[in-house]
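[Structure tokenization] protein backbone as discrete codes

[Encoding] learned vocabulary of local backbone shapes

[Begin record] amino acids and matching fold tokens:

___
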Amino acid sequence: MTSSTRSGATPSASRRTEGDRDQARHFEERSHFGFISPSLAVLFLLASFGYAILLSLLALLLDELGLHRYRRLGDLAAVAAAAVVENLGYRQLTAWWRLQGWWASLRNGTPVWGEMTRSGFAGTTPLDHGSHATVPGTTPGAARPGARLPAAAPEERGPRH
């Protein structure tokens, strides 16, 4: 009886065979740093993009069913296309910018925004010009329900009793 048998371990468990080493080597070659295989990583990436696009489109659907913001089907299709494209690069770009800002704030702690010259509005545009979303039952230019109206001048109020 060998010492490995007395301790409770079997002889095959105490030493690795050549086949076990080949299998471990094969797994390490096919995995990324020994953690996950590239095909699984690509599948996870596709699933995450698909889920983000699905959530954006479902939010657009709920918005459209509840508020009917878009008058033409082409407008709705353009917003749906933007919801898809936004998830395929723009969100990752904004995450990168946020990461850069976070790292810069950790290094020096002073935010630098740069020069921002305000120019104002060139002219006024009507609220309802065909592409702006309006709430059904309201007219452009009318006061919103619950909005405060400007106070009348004292002479317009009438005599005080």
